[in-house]
Amino acid sequence: MDTLGGTTVRVVHQPPGAVAPEWSLEEVLRVGTIDGAGPSSFSGIRGLVVLDDARFAVLDDVSQEIRVFAPDGTHIVTHGRKGGGPGEFEAAYGLMRDSRGQLWVPDYRNARMSVLDPDLGMLWSAPLQLLSRGFIWRGAMLDSDHVWKPSITLGPPRTNVMRVYDQKSVLIDSLALPPDPDVDPEDPPGVFAWRSPDGRSGGYHVVPFFPQGETLI
């Protein structure tokens, strides 16, 4: 702080230098092993939710099963299997929990949303036609038990929207979203790009559980 011209006071604040956060990772629970078998052996996790009593449910991709575990990792019960019948899943790829502790499972190949009780299993299902999907479900369950899911319109023109569904999976609103941002094709967010040394081939691999944001207008 100094004085300029007799009465003018100039104050300069110099913020401290950037301090990198100190992160640490501590394992508190391990479920299954690489060489294990049974319900604690996973072939690709597509969803995981924790219940109010500290139990947790895991959606396994290949088996299309929802497996419920005790807080200590002990398997309790398995719901569902691969198929198109009631209580079955063909391509379930997400798991959500509502305010009552029920499990919501989107299945894009069966074009429906299924709702299960963690103890009793299948409760009901409703049609759900998804126009866009990815490796992992990008929707979210809000406190109102409404499901918010980024989607698109078929157009023309094709636009980004946020679909809002009620407690019975009925579409109740569509909110406009900003257009997709320009990205570097060699380094797109959430995707690993690879190229062969000779440059003749290449491809992309999605990074599982990569965090993404949706901004409403």
Summarize the topology.
Layout lengths: L1 E3 L3 E3 L34 E6 L5 E5 L4 E5 L5 E5 L16 E2 L5 E5 L4 E6 L3 E7 L12 E2 L5 E6 L7 E6 L5 E6 L14 E5 L6 E5 L11
Antiparallel strand pairs: 1-2, 3-4, 4-5, 5-6, 7-8, 8-9, 9-10, 11-12, 12-13, 13-14, 15-16
Q: What order do the SSEs take from the amino end to the carboxyl end, as H and E? A: EEEEEEEEEEEEEEEE
Q: Low-confidence parts, pLDDT < 50 over ≥5 residues?
A: none
Mean pLDDT: 87
Helix residue percentage: under 10%
Please indicate the percent range of residues in DSSP E strands (runs of 2 or more).
35-45%
Main sheet attributes: strand count, strand direction, barrel closure: 4 strands, antiparallel
Structural class of the helices, strands and pairings?
mainly beta
- Identify the overall geometry: extended
Extended strand count: 16
The largest beta-sheet arranges its strands as 3-4-5-6
Instruction: Classify the oligomer.
Output: single chain
Distance between the termini: 42 Å
What is the CA-atom radius of gyration, in angstroms?
A: 23 Å
Q: How many helix segments?
A: 0
Brief summary of the model shown:
By secondary structure, the protein is an all-beta fold. Helices cover 0% and strands 35% of the residues.
